[in-house]
């Protein structure tokens, strides 16, 4: 097994860093020019930006510390070893790049669904959904432990399949770009947004996922291809209240307080006792007749996901 090439890893950091900086600035400018909702008050916006950018900084530091070579480094090791399902089934080399990209997207979709359904993981992912408005910085608002778990999961999938490093690099850039794009408060025009959402997650598509109505929070898990939501019956193209009137955030009494928390408090939140009124009970489990944890409130009545719906 050859050690990963550090030149490619350095290039990976540079490519990802530059694409990220350009897109962050570009979407932030575009949001001002073509806002979709654009009515966050200045004070609220400043508070959200401190939280979101603070978490982004913590994520970057923790990730570089634990996985310095990141997913691309893992792919280089896998490539050198020649292991993985793609090699085992004799998939032609040209096909491993698109297959790797699509299957990594499916893996991230499945991970997102699991973050919503497993209560201990929801504690981590809840930090992301506590944002009370959406803009490009919401795409950076993740708890570092969720980021670490996500990286470990991606590396496992890369090794299992034997995804080539170039496909991993393309996927990581696309995933970053998609997260900034689909959280942006960007008005593409209803028709363009709807047509684009047939293929990839758009701002309107992903906004439904940030609805405070729990059955809407538990839909539209896609970060990139919306195909997975259509295929597995979790697609919900339009929020019940409409895009203008819908409430962003979580429907629990603790969310109003936690949504105003700074980055340090948000980092600690998942490890503390669930606040009274926090939506820590998974509505699907509640529906299956499992007892609710003391002091918790499922918020909205449990409802199964609407089948089909695409
Ligand atoms: Zn989510």
Automatic annotation (TrEMBL):
Annotated spans, Disordered: 278-310
PANTHER family on file: STEROL DESATURASE (PTHR11863)
InterPro entries from the UniProt entry: Fatty_acid_hydroxylase (IPR006694), Sterol_Desaturase_Related (IPR050307)
Domain spans labelled Fatty acid hydroxylase: 99-234
UniProt keyword list: Membrane, Transmembrane, Transmembrane helix
Record localization: Membrane
Protein name: Fatty acid hydroxylase domain-containing protein
Lineage: Bacteria, Pseudomonadati, Pseudomonadota, Alphaproteobacteria, Geminicoccales
One Pfam match: FA_hydroxylase
Transmembrane segments: 6-29, 50-77, 83-108, 151-171
């Amino acid at each position: 097994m050859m050690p990963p090439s550090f030149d490619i890893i350095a290039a990976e950091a540079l490519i990802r860093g530059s694409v990220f900086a350009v897109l962050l600035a570009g979407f932030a400018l575009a949001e001002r020019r073509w806002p979709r909702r654009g009515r966050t008050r200045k004070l609220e916006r400043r508070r959200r930006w401190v939280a979101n950018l603070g978490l982004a900084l913590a994520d970057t530091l923790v990730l570089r510390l634990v996985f310095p070579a990141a997913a691309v480094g893992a792919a280089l090791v896998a490539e050198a070893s020649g292991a993985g399902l793609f090699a085992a089934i004799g998939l032609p080399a040209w096909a491993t790049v698109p297959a790797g990209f699509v299957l990594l997207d499916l893996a991230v979709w499945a991970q997102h669904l699991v973050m919503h359904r497993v209560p201990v993981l929801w504690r981590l992912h809840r930090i992301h959904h506590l944002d009370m408005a959406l803009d490009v910085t919401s795409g950076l608002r993740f708890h570092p432990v969720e980021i670490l778990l996500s990286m470990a999961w991606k590396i496992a999938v890369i090794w299992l399949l034997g995804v080539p490093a170039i496909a991993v690099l393309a996927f990581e850039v696309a995933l970053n770009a998609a997260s900034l794009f689909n959280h942006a408060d960007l008005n593409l025009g209803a028709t363009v947004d709807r047509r684009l959402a047939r293929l990839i997650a758009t701002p309107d598509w992903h906004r439904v996922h940030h609805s405070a109505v729990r059955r809407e929070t538990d839909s539209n898990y896609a970060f990139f291809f919306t195909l997975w939501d259509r295929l597995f019956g979790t697609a919900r193209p339009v929020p019940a209240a409409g895009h203008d009137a819908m409430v962003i955030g979580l429907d629990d009494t603790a969310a109003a307080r936690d949504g105003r928390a700074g980055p340090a408090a948000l980092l600690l939140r998942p490890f503390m006792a669930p606040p009274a009124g926090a939506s820590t009970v998974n509505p699907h489990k509640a529906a299956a007749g499992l007892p609710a944890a003391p002091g918790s409130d499922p918020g909205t009545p449990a409802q199964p996901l609407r089948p089909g719906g695409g």
